[in-house]
Amino acid sequence: MSLIDLNNLPSDVQATIGRKETDGERRVRLVKDLVVFTLAIILMVIVVAYSLDILLAATATSADKRWAQSIISAIAGGVIGYLLRR
Fold this sequence. Notes:
The chain is mainly α. It is 66% helix and 0% strand. The protein has helices at 23-56, 62-84.
């Protein structure tokens, strides 16, 4: 019987150790990811809606409009960066 020394592998061999994900674990992970993604989208929409409300309000001060514009610009930049993945 030959033994393989995992600390001294040949240069063209790669060894990985991992465990397989069961269907139940995969389902739980996907549901959790979907819930977190959905909540993030909802929160982003709420923040953008509030910022647009401040930005378009006639009674808002110029300082309020500046931060609302900054928030909308930051979210737009984040969304564009996420979509382009750069």
